[in-house]
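A favour, since you know our structure tokens better than I do. It will help me judge whether the discrete encoding reads sensibly. The space below this message is yours for that.
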Amino acid sequence: MLAFKLAYKNLVGAGLRTWLNVFVLSLALVIIVMTWGIVEGWNVQAKHDMKEWAVGGGEYWNEKYDQYDPLSLNDGHGSIPPEIAKLCSSGEAVPVLITQATAYPGGRMRNILLNGIDPSQQIVKMPTSVMNGDTSVINAIIGTRMAKATKLSVNDMVSIRWRDAKGTFDATEIRIAGIFHSNVPNIDINQIWLPLDELQKMTSMKGQATYIILKQGMTSAPTVPGWIHKGYDVLFEEFDRVIKAKHASSSVVFLILLSLALLAVFDTQVLSIFRREKEIGTYIALGMTRWQVVWLFTVEGAMHAVLSVVAGAIWGTPLLYLLSKNGFAMPKGSEGYGFTLAEKIFPVYGAGTIIITAVVIMLATTIVSFIPSRKIARMKPTDALRGKAQ
């Protein structure tokens, strides 16, 4: 207890030097928590958006379909099995048919994917109901990225060309009935969405689909021959790799930032021992053992971390709260990165992250404070009193 009292008095007596170290450590603590919160917020938002707009509660893929292989679209479709047809009729699933095509917006050629989906579906948030408009033309919807790239607006007509199941090329004009905004690029970039029955007629694939989206909250999925169930572990696999890479790169920055903060504490301890040799000799002459003095200086260094946690809580909590409420705006052009990224990311701070970061900083500061303090154990009291300790 005496060591803590003496350490506290010595820290207060050091004045500005102490508070500079505390501020640097608290800055490292807040930045680490904030950055991890931004990455975790991105993770939570992206997965939520993907569930709402694209993958629902999971998917069934035709066994020949591979979303990373465009060539698989020629054979990656099949008749909707009775087990899944029942789910579709009850509103618990919606089939999607995909085929390659070419669009000619403004006379320019652009390779696209035509996606057929039931306009009355309620599984994903796409405004498919607008495709139930004028029946004299084929109504379609596109995303804002596609609209920007093709300069298409609502009610514009655009020519498309495709090849049906028999290999015959055909062409028609479709009307852009609606434009939706989504943070999920996979349903937007180079994608046009049509009514499922229209696309099935156009491609001579009546009653067929490429994949089926399940409703969120479904607790079980039946095994269906010829179709493979894809859960979140598969559908989010690519995004999870991005998040892991982001965590790894952030850890390097955190290590550098923490090292700079600990270097300030280390320098302070070295300087303190050098300038307080007579004080150290006095402690030993009064009956304290060398290791008790080592412990005293180690506690002084460790208390920098304790004070930094308190200071970080005082000024960092309002800052982190404002960021979690107002969000962290992403730079313009980030929507073209190719993965789910919102215009604003709202950080998510976990209690575990905050506690672990604080503990790591306190342990690291204690170790860094102990290293230079070991010199005290080799001091001779008489030399220390004369200020000549080596």
Notes: Residues 234 and 284 are 65 Å apart (CA to CA).
